[in-house]
Amino acid sequence: MKILIPTAKEMNTDLPSIESAPLKPESQAVLDALAFYSSNQLESFYKVSAEKAAEEFQNIQALTSQTAQHYPALKLFDGLMYRHIKRDKLTEAEQVYLENHVFITSALYGVVPALSPMPPHRLDFLMKLKVSGKTLKSHWKAAYDEAVTQEEVIFSLLSSEFETVFSKEIREKMLTFKFMEDKGGQLKIHSTISKKARGAFLTALIENQVQTVEEARHLSFAGFVYREDLSQPRELVFVKEV
């Protein structure tokens, strides 16, 4: 059983660094493609300010020269979803569950355990990087599929940009989740609700050591409860009354 979560743009490097791991060939190919860009070119590639592009240029150079500081990925990424995940003061059982079941999908590293060492970097599947003539999605598809092909149960907390890296066969095995708010009978969904709820849901999975779809249905967390009437066989819907 694997739980898949995406990377985030926001990062926190105010952490103790950890030892890096050798890059896989697929990752090295992506890094080689990024290393062709000058700081000016990165500005338009990333659609960011000159200052941010210069920072990213330094990150890429540090990775290329193997001098980059690495951090546990789950703690490095610090977007809204990540800030709602229980990342500290885990019990031994929760730590083991996290290590065995929670995986981050990265455009630079592939599908990796959540506590894998990663350096600060910016890359997602909406970026038009060509790797040996292929799009990022095409480049990673085989490795992404291979990472989960043996799994009977795949919980996806991914956005569509990450989900569509996987083949149709794998996507059809995934269980997806929708988080909504009920305001006086009006069901609402927006990205802020979804991101916070994904983090809270993952925390509930970790704390309750969830292994099956049936166990997931019985969870209640941060005011959200399962709504069978709104759910589909491959999509569980959780609603919070506000």
UniProtKB/TrEMBL annotation:
Entry superkingdom: Bacteria
Gene Ontology cellular-component terms listed: cytosol
GO biological process: response to hydroperoxide
Cited HAMAP family: UPF0246
Family: Belongs to the UPF0246 family.
Record protein name field: UPF0246 protein SK642_1375
